[in-house]
Design a protein that fits this description.
heterodimer; A: about 200 residues; 4-stranded antiparallel β-sheet; 7 helices; 11 strands; B: alpha/beta; Rossmann fold; Arc Repressor Mutant, subunit A; 12 strands
């Protein structure tokens, strides 16, 4: 069969700046299901096991857009990324120690896959995810930046991270007159808010 | 003089390989055929600086290969690392099996999957859908040119063909020479008032975008 004898050479470990969904499980079934759920070109699916999760996490540049896990504990590099970067975090089944407060947990694969589809198709005002990377406006303008992609995909939810982490994306939204700004909500999460609502607070 | 774009074909069955090579030759592509993974790796290595295939067709099961020193997974991993801009179709009798799909996608996360049980004709039909593409007001002709349909003007660079084949996906180009060619293609589209425009994602990443109100593209052939 086609299995390589050089696992360190696997393409899944190759660094890439495209939008990445990292799936960390003990077997392959959830990753295959996620692959089927995501429209071609929207994101690449990186199918990881606990033993290579750290290397594959590091290969997602600047960080994974989404991490999906099931039946595994968090590896050190993965835990660090999840706690310091705005990564959409979806977990199936028992929740391991160290997941950030904004992680969404699911009992059934179908509900998780619906959430994945929803994140890929997210639309916030005129902003939606462009294929592969970036956020596209209705007039075709492409806004680049992993933070903005995360905020758009998480909407109406947000990230339990310090607000200063989002200063650059906040400035970019102001410059582009997109009609949206970044604010901390009542649950302590930083998320996108319509500028009119934000100004009224 | 036009350089016909290369297509890498890894197929261990001599008869099927011959059929695929004939098909691509007829379509004016230059087939790089290999019956073993080690031969395919040599072809990639030898053509590293002169050319880069616009498509790779990989048979996952190489039971009849004359040399088994390397696997189809090795070829896929090399393609994923060094020829990210090359679309890859992998076919297998066991493509439905979770472990086979996982092994293929860990070797090459962007690989498109095809069921070998559907027959060679089905594979050729899928390849033709990818290579004879119409995107907005552009069409690939004879595998060597992109034609702007309203004016019938032609653009000959292989990187332009690569962008049309990949639409709507992003293509990461490997060199400054390639990105210059891509930018010239973008200017050519603009000068022809094409419904298709070039979008830069930075870091040598580009894709084509079709103006929504203009000619609709064919459905994307993505697994």
């Amino acid at each position: 069969m086609g299995v390589t004898d050089a696992p360190w050479m696997l393409g899944v470990r190759a660094p890439d700046r495209g939008r990445a969904i990292l799936v960390v499980t003990v077997d392959c079934e959830l990753a295959v299901a996620v692959h089927d759920a995501v429209r071609g070109g929207m994101a690449i699916i990186r199918d990881a096991r606990s033993e290579d999760a750290d290397e594959i996490t590091a290969a997602c540049l600047p960080w994974p857009w989404m991490v999906i896990g099931s039946a595994v504990s968090l590896t050190p590099a993965l835990a660090s990324v999840l706690c310091h970067r705005p990564v959409l975090t979806f977990w199936l089944g028992d929740v391991p120690a160290g997941l950030p407060g904004h992680a969404r947990c699911f009992d059934r694969p179908a509900a998780l896959l619906d959430a994945v589809r929803g994140a890929c198709a997210a639309q916030v005002g005129e902003m939606r995810l462009a294929p592969g990377s970036g956020v596209e406006l209705d007039d075709g303008t492409l806004m680049r930046g992993a933070m903005l992609e995360s905020l758009v995909a998480a909407y109406p939810h947000g990230f339990a991270l310090p607000a200063q982490n989002f200063r650059a994306v906040s400035n970019a939204l102001t410059r582009s007159h997109a009609g949206w700004c970044v604010q901390r909500d009542e649950t302590g999460c930083v998320r996108l808010v319509s500028s009119q609502v934000g100004a009224g607070r | 003089m036009r350089a016909n774009p290369e297509v890498l074909i890894l197929e261990d069955d001599a008869e099927t390989l011959d059929e695929l090579q004939t098909h691509f030759t007829r379509k004016r592509f230059h087939p790089l055929g290999a019956r073993s993974a080690s031969r395919a790796l040599s072809l990639l290595e030898n053509n590293r600086y002169s050319s880069r295939p616009v498509l790779a067709i990989i048979d996952w099961d190489l039971g009849k290969a004359p040399d088994r020193s390397a696997s189809s997974g090795d070829v896929l991993s090399r393609l994923a690392r060094e020829l990210r801009e090359c679309p890859v179709i992998v076919y297998s009798q066991n493509i439905d099996a979770f472990n086979v799909r996982s092994q293929i996608q860990r070797s090459h996360p962007r690989a498109l999957l095809h069921d070998k049980r559907d027959g060679d004709a089905s594979l050729l039909e899928r390849i033709d859908r990818m290579l004879d593409r119409t995107v907005g007001d552009l069409r690939i002709h004879d595998g060597t040119v992109v034609v702007h349909l309203p004016s019938l003007d032609q653009h000959h660079h292989r990187e332009a063909i690569r962008l049309v084949v990949h639409h709507p996906d992003i293509v990461t180009f490997h060199s400054d020479t390639a990105t210059k060619a891509v930018r010239r293609f973008g200017e050519w589209l603009h000068s022809h008032n094409s419904a298709v425009r070039l979008v830069s994602h930075g870091n040598r990443k580009y894709r084509l975008s079709v103006t929504a109100s203009e000619g609709a593209a064919q459905p994307c052939d993505k697994a």
